[in-house]
Amino acid sequence: MRPGTGIDSDLTPSSNLEWLETNGLGDYAQGTATGANTRRYHGLLVANLPHLDRHVLLSSVEDWLCIGSESIPLASRYHPGCVYPEGQKVLKSWQASPCPTFVYEAAGLRVTRRIALVHGSHTVLIRYTLEASDEDEAALLGDSELMLRVTPLLAFRRYHDLTHANMDLHVKTYPIRAGFKIQPYNALPPIYIRSEGLFDFLPSPEWINTVEYPVERERGFDYQEDLFSPGLFEIHVMAGDDIILAASLDEQFGSAQSGAPQDLHALWNAEMARRSAPQETGRRKVKNANALCSFLAAQSEDFLMQTPGGRSLLLAGFPWFGSWGRDTLIALPGTTFLAGRLDEGLAILRTMAINASDGLIPNTFDGDGQPRGFNSVDASLWFAWDCQLMIKALSKEPERLQAFLDLCAPALYSIIAAYRAGRVPFTRVATSGLLEVGTPSTQLTWMDAQVDGKPVTPRNGFPVEIQALWYNTLAFAHNLAKKRGDPDPCSSRELKALRAVFAAHFTLPDGTLCDVWRAPEDGAPDTSLRPNQLLAVSMPEPIAPKSSWKPIVSQATKKLLTPFGLRTLSPDDPAFCPVYAGGPAQRDRAYHQGTVWTWLLGPYTDALLKAEQVDESGEKSRRKPTKAVKRLLETITPLVTTHLREAGVGHMSEIFSATEPYAPDGTTAQAWSEGEVYRMLLALRAADRETWEDWEKTLPYFN
Asked: Rounded to whole angstroms, how far apart are CA atoms 231 and 154?
């Protein structure tokens, strides 16, 4: 997490607070502020393995401070009906920045444990610092022997799964310089574990049975597993010592050849310096940067990864999402090129373009960066939106802009051809020019939850946001072709006709739009008030008539806007689900039936600012949107203050319940939540800088 913001100051250690470490390779480490894992996804080294996806390898360590014959636990772990060990009893404080830091106090000693993943290396470092917390009490220890006993606990399983004691695991450990290596299963790589200081490693293989993950139990999933302990380190210490334990998959890291092993303190110091260095330049790299935006830009680095083959991808969210086409393209502007990472944004768009198949952008990528699905009806259309924003970002770099246009223009024309030729699954261009999507049994838009194989929110027919994205793609391609002298993929006459038929089909009496248009014989239009219609206004080339802009934004503001995002259904609707909770089926029924999604703040803000630019007659207004900007900034203040100190500390959750207190849920760090909030904040600042700066002065931690 970005150092120096203070958002994690004074936080009481809690199992509801989660921290996140990443290394740019798709690996992560994650746990809670008490040190006890509460999810199957938690672990100290969750590695993205070539051809195998992510695996929880080092789940945790069980560490004890031993003073003579007394043993004081530092670790915590859940078992049926109890916590054991009970390190939380001596845990005094915790913070997330610049790395997860736990401070324990007992017998006049203070033990500080820090955890850090090393960027660009499959390596986790665990640093222990011992010092006297009470000189008088520490003096009473006299000549008592001090020792840290540290037991690595291994899972070695896919991060979606759980493991149990079995006879297939290879228990043998092999000595390396300053530690040992073990390869529990032939199909998975060995792990090398080393320690500094004077120590003994005592091989003592055993299974730790029935470890529980309470959050998995709450979510209705299997929640018990067994972890394997290969042995323990007995590290002789004294007050003032500072030692590092490390676990790595890098063979060179664990080399047993002659020569001193890598200096773990030098590795630690280099990693901490790397974390601080970008902050010195971040404000210069990001246009209109400020403390809050600089923080969000730095945090979004966690979602970027290089695959084992060197491909650039963006992960949708932690802890359980991989790389998704739609999610990547929605999150991309705010996590890369608008956040000062132009090269990364270009690289990811290039990955998308070169992996297109028959004009279709992949919907998913595996951990190796290989496309694994072309079944999304809108991922390819979001690609066009990204290209529009990238062109603006490259406006002052003509050579790079030209190179980018040479990449994106052919891809764009191929996308349009694919839709027209019927190569997009369950999608066809109707005679009206609109896109018809799906069947009553398919769920192909972003609102894709299903229960018992049936869509919770059936959106077959003509979904409003699909029409908005389709029109925007056609209009963009038309303008681009004119500038480049390419064959025009869609004439001005066709675009005008498309706007007319859209207005005739979708516009409701109050000026808002139906969510899905269907002919009467196909089930009639779905007039539910949802946020999808905002895209008909927010796109760079909006399809909604100007007369609808204000009614759409007005209803979204009244019924859907919350401090943490937009509801997916109006509270007035009989199908509205106020709380996202329960088992998988209950949660899926609520997922798009009211549940708040943070990423929707991006389209909402674009639509709001456009609506403020026109008067009641639809003509352009010259007035500054001060009131609208101020109201929106005040509304979302809890999101950028309170929420950054809960759930995944320093990150934004995927979703929230639809009514107060808007409990966060889903992933604890979601790329499109953070990317779209960042983009929203830049847009509001550009719309009214004075109002923005006055608001920013009220924010704790960012002044």
From this structure: 11
- Identify whether the C-beta of residue 30 lies closer than 8 Å to the C-beta of residue 43: yes
Q: Which fold has domain 294-696?
A: Glycosyltransferase (1.50.10)
d(CA 700, CA 703): 7
C-alpha closest to that of 419 among 374, 452, 380, 373: 380
Q: What is the pLDDT of residues 488-546, one digit of tens each?
A: 999 999 999 999 999 999 999 999 999 999 999 989 999 999 999 999 999 999 999 99
Q: 471, 495 in Cβ contact below 8 A?
A: yes
End-to-end alpha carbon distance in the chain: 17
Cβ 349 vs Cβ 313: under 8 Å? no
For CATH 2.70.98, list the domain ranges present in the chain: 18-276
- Residue spans in the chain of domains classed CATH 1.50.10.10: 294-696
Task: Please check the confidence at residue 286 and state whether its pLDDT lies above 50.
Answer: no
- Strand ranges (E), 238-334: 242-248, 304-306, 312-314, 317-318, 323-324
Burial class of residue 168 (count of CB atoms within 10 Å of its CB; 0-12, 13-18, 19+): exposed
Model's pTM, two decimal places?
A: 0.95
- Of 437, 432, 428, the C-alpha closest to 503 is 432
Q: Domain 18-276: which CATH class?
A: mainly beta
Q: Residue written as tokens 């006459």?
A: 493
Helix axes of 626-635 and 601-612: crossing angle, nearest 10 degrees: 160
Cis peptide before 319, with omega less than 30 degrees from 0?
yes
SS3 360: strand
Let me know the angle formed at the C-alpha of 288 by 286 and 294, rounded to the nearest 5 degrees: 50
Instruction: Please tell me the distance from the alpha carbon of residue 239 to that of residue 583, in angstroms, as a whole number.
Output: 48
Report which secondary-structure segment, H or E, holds 276: helix 264-285
- 39 alpha-carbon distance from chain centroid: 16
Residue 48, SS3 per DSSP: strand
